[in-house]
User: Which sequence fits this backbone?
């Protein structure tokens, strides 16, 4: 898609002023907000240095702020040192030792709480266990766990000793797990016997065994947390139960002070080519973004119960579950299971029972729950809620209004937060006590975030509602530092245009007459399925890895619930099934992709053809495939098509 021909089809005129009751108590009000913007405009690095000094606890204070001498590789606060786990735990023990850090509920209804003291003790014991297994600062540790407190404990324990974690979402397959282990060169996997999800056991240990059997030479040990207690094989000499690993460890584990730029974690995300990118985040800059947005955007306070429903396998679960709320001294809610177990009231029942005050989820979840009807939320007392958030993809105004009225009872501000795995924390978002919201817009950039919409030459687009490239014009502390092991790919992916000066987000956007940002979609061939990015290439590579498949092309089409559904065009090695459909092979290929990548990547539709639409130079014409998948007429020029006859097959007409 070229940014030039992005036309805006969505005009939304409703505007909601911040609720005066909320404003009266908000951490950031108009006056503070204006002052922050002014400070950031007048003294950009001074602004960030001030935030870093006020919000983080340093072991060795920094003098250096931004170093851009190796652009586009930037460093922040580089001569300072700190420890992320110290910032999330130890520093709260004076006043918050007995405050709940985590309230956890399992899918089966089991509830467990951990105070700051208890969490610090558990993290320290487990960090000692990691050390006893030979893990040292800089080693990579893969975490493949269900949404249970031990996932956060494992992440924090790595941070405590300077080990670099890479959390792999439990819904990813053994193949994806193996690729990520090998790319990171991880020494250890931390997993569980299983997790409870959707009334079933997610076989995490079995998937780990399968991944390792396929060849992961860097792995020495596997630590297995007992969650489901069903029978699983343990491999002698390699596998250790979590409870055995911590049995002899004490709760005294001094944090390892690391340089500000020490990598805190890697998190793999999809790109437009087949190979996932290990997004590498720093310690101090990342944590600054996490704490600052938890305080400013989520207005997190002493008495709040903050529930971000994201899995720790995604960036949202890092910044708004495992790190940010703890750095801010908050209480977080964590839920193991599916939103519809035992029924679609589960989230709302938990809001009532645990008195959740801040709730942050994805449009895909909002739409799915909206479809199931108002009777579920209406059964519960949602009066504890004071702030709602959404993230992952543009939220359609209909879902926004439902969230606003049925869940927020028209008094909770909604923060529609635009950001990415790479940005580490919220970038463009309303502040709940300041910004008037418009359904479907993520509104305006945070103070200190130089986001803009530019044309092909990098010039700011000043005509309202004209689409262009979403860029961030200045480096910022929480941004990714590189792609693990691939500095060149980092530069060519995020700084390919505009003289390498602006961070290119890969989204197209427009600004309206109030300067509000509206995200229009991705500019590359990346799908957004249920709020998660998937490269079309990854799905295509998985399809062609099947022995029956000769060629495949994948595009997205709009889907009511998931945002985007996956439509695959497949050329088989044998004959084309009559009419281009075949239920049996379709099922076989869907299951195959599920095994190769994970259930999230299973194509929703598969159409078989004798060939794909190609230009004379052999390039697949994706625009045509998108038109067909969306049921649109083909209006674009097909004269460059090498094989125009193929269109009827692709459309399912013959
Ligand atoms: C992409 C990043 C950030 C955590 C979840 C996804 C899309 C994200 C919004 C929003 C419109 C959004 C963008 C972005 N996106 N938030 N509020 N409005 N689009 O993280 O997998 O790194 O994906 O998600 O396209 O580039 P991710």
Assistant:
């Amino acid at each position: 898609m070229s940014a030039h021909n992005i036309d805006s089809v969505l005009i939304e005129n409703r505007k909601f002023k911040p609720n005066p009751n909320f404003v009266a108590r908000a951490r950031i009000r108009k006056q503070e907000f204006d002052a922050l913007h002014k400070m950031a405009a007048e003294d950009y690095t001074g602004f960030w240095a001030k935030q870093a000094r006020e919000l983080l606890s340093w072991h060795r204070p920094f003098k250096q702020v931004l170093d851009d001498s190796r652009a586009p590789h930037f460093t922040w606060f580089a001569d300072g040192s700190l420890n992320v786990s110290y910032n999330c735990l130890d520093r709260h023990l004076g006043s918050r030792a007995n405050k709940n850090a985590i309230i956890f509920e399992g899918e089966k209804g089991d509830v467990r709480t951990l105070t700051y003291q208890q969490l610090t003790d558990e993290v320290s014991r487990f960090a000692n266990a990691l050390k006893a297994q030979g893990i040292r600062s800089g080693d990579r540790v893969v975490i493949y766990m269900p949404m249970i407190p031990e996932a956060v404990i494992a992440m924090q324990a790595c941070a405590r000793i300077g080990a670099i974690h890479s959390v792999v979402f439990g819904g990813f397959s053994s193949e994806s797990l193996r690729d990520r282990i090998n790319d990171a060169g991880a020494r250890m996997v931390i997993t569980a016997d299983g997790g409870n999800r959707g009334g079933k056991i997610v076989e995490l240990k079995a998937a780990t065994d399968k991944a390792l059997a396929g060849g992961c030479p860097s792995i020495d040990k596997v630590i297995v947390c007992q969650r489901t207690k069903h029978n699983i094989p343990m491999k002698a000499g390699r596998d250790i139960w979590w409870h055995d690993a911590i049995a002899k460890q004490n709760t005294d584990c001094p944090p390892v002070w690391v340089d500000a730029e020490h990598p805190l974690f890697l998190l793999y995300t999809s790109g437009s080519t087949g190979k996932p990118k290990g997004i590498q985040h720093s310690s101090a800059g990342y944590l600054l973004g996490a704490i600052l947005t938890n305080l400013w955007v989520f207005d997190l306070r002493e008495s709040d119960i903050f529930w971000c429903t994201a899995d720790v396998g995604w960036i949202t679960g890092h910044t708004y579950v495992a790190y940010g709320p703890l750095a801010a001294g908050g209480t977080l809610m964590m839920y193991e299971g599916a939103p519809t177990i035992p029924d679609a009231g589960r989230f709302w029942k938990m809001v009532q029972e645990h008195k959740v005050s801040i709730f942050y989820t994805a449009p895909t979840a909002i739409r799915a729950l909206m479809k199931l009807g108002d009777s579920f939320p209406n059964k519960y007392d949602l009066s504890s809620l004071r702030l709602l958030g959404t993230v992952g993809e543009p939220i359609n105004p209909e879902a926004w209004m439902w969230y606003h009225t049925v869940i927020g009872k028209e008094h909770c501000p909604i923060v529609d937060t635009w950001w990415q795995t790479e940005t580490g924390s919220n970038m463009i978002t309303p502040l709940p006590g300041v910004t008037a919201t418009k359904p479907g817009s993520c509104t305006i950039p945070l103070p200190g975030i130089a986001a803009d919409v530019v044309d092909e030459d990098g010039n700011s687009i000043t005509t309202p509602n004209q689409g262009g490239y979403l860029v961030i014009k200045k480096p910022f502390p929480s941004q990714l530092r590189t792609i693990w092991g691939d500095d060149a790919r980092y530069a060519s992916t995020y700084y390919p245009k505009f003289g390498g000066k602006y961070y290119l987000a890969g989204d197209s956007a427009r600004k309206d007459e109030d300067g509000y940002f509206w995200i229009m979609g991705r500019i590359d061939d990346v799908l957004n399925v249920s709020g998660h990015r998937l490269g079309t290439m990854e799905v295509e590579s998985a399809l062609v890895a099947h022995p029956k498949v000769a060629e495949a092309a994948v595009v997205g089409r709009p889907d009511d619930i998931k945002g985007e559904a996956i439509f695959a065009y497949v050329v088989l090695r044998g004959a084309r099934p009559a009419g281009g459909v075949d239920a049996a092979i379709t099922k076989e290929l869907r299951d195959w992709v599920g095994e190769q990548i994970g259930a999230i990547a299973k194509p929703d539709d598969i159409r078989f053809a004798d060939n794909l639409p190609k230009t004379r130079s052999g390039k697949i014409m994706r625009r045509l495939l998108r038109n067909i998948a969306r049921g649109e007429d083909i209006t674009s020029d097909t004269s460059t098509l090498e094989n125009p006859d193929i269109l009827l097959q692709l459309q399912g007409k013959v």
